[in-house]
Specification:
This protein has 320 residues and is α/β, with parallel strands linked by helices. It folds into 3 domains: 53 residues, no CATH class; 119 residues, Rossmann fold, CATH 3.40.50.12500; 96 residues, Rossmann fold, CATH 3.40.50. Helices cover 49% and strands 12% of the residues. The chain is built from 15 helices and 8 strands. Strands 2-1-3-4 form a 4-stranded parallel beta sheet, with helices on both faces. A 4-stranded parallel beta sheet has the order 6-5-7-8, with helices on both faces. Helix 1 crosses helix 3, helix 11 packs across helix 15 and helix 13 packs parallel to helix 14. It is globular, with a radius of gyration of 22 Å. The chain starts with 16 loop residues before the first helix and ends with a helix.
Length: 320
Amino acid sequence: MIKSDSTLHLKPNCISPEEWDKLVNGDLSFTEIEAKYCEEVAINAGIARDPDALETYDLSFANARPADEVHPEWMERWRQLQAEGRRFLTPDDYRSPKRVGLIVPSTNTVMEPDLYRNLPNNVTVHTSRMLLEGSVTIETEELMLDVYLPECARQVGTLRPDVVVFGCTSAGALRGPAYEQELAEELARATGAPTITIMGAVVEELRRLEFNSVAVLTPYSQEINDTIKDSLETSGFSVPYLSGMDVRGAFNIAAVTPAEIIAYVQEQLAGVDSDCLFVSCANLRSVEVLSELRKAAGRPVVTSNQAVLECVKRAIAVAV
């Protein structure tokens, strides 16, 4: 157990010594702490937990010397390798490779890059696409689920994935949580791997962080928003506010810029009281600006792809 009083110089002013002691000696992940508090608290708690962190010892700073001074030959060689475009190995490179099977609508251009940018180097993402033409509507999503999804599942199963992600928030919510759970089980049987659905991951994240009331912002039309709201309420959450951008054309959701997402959050949440904000849609570029969204919202923020990332990391860790 870490004596938190020895790390009080790292404690941000926004939390009490008692809360700090629980964080330093607890098992919340960086993302969980960041969601519940802020990035500064998450970073400082990580430093305090590391017994070898030089940041915890003032004497270490006093005695520190530039690497160029201590090992000039090493630093010169490092600069040469960088100039040659060499990539340096990390501990992730030595772990056994893991495969994520991803099933998304054919118009999605955001989720795959989000996974690659935020998963360890030993994880590869292999994508199969359900045909989606036109806008996100109940009819087009039912077509995806009933006609195109089974073949995608068969394809993903042939690459022997360690975990599978069904990457469409609205399609998962379309027929309610019970159906989505059945869908995850069917995909697990078809692919031979545990399957994560987005709304399942979102609900898990909201429960882990002990949120009860959830404001929701989406790029969808009202008919799709209603299914998202119903899914969350059926799972036990209150939804005091929900608004959608009503983006026409599924492909165009990815064209909404991060700056526009931030502005929309600021505009819509004024005067809204909730424990947190859920920004829905796997094709919306919200992960790129997650910290900025939390500042704009003035409360914790959970997004579709961020919730999936947390679930994937846990699933892979279990499999290692």
